[in-house]
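Task card 7
Instruction: Convert sequence to structure tokens.
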Amino acid sequence: MFTNNRLKPYYRIIICISILTFSFCTSPTSPSTPINYIQGNTYFCGDLKMQLTLPTNWLITKDTVDNGSSYLLVGHKISSGANFNLLAGLYNATSNMNVMLDSAKIEIGSQFPGAITVTSQTVTIHNHIFGEYVVNVTMNGNALTMKQVYIFNNSNLIVFTFGDLNSNYPNSVLDFNTMENSIQFN
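Output:
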């Protein structure tokens, strides 16, 4: 159950942004049988050979597999409007992170006229290059900050989106950074 009804409509919008950003990739490759599960606060995705650990004050609220080729994981912070979603799939996408970040900027800008880029950079975590794109947007009169993280692992593209009100973002992003740093590939 969502604990902050004021932000509840934005969960769907942020998920849609991730899906739209993800959709510029080419069509999925042949699906395989996923083996994913949650143990404690850690999410394991067998097909993607990935795991992600959430801080204890976060809950996973949705875990969906679509035709064995794409995954959607949604969660939120207890007692806050902060939320995240992870959209991943077996896609043939450009593996050039700068091209990916430029595409994200164009896609998000088309969805949110007036969006302001805060940062667009690459970082290395656990020997993987992550593209990070942080943007300020206005949605239904509310100022939000969203951070999208793009990760290539083999032929997989993983898009991880985090969002919160601008005023809450500096505190909530600490949890998100903890989640981002917990991502491991086997």
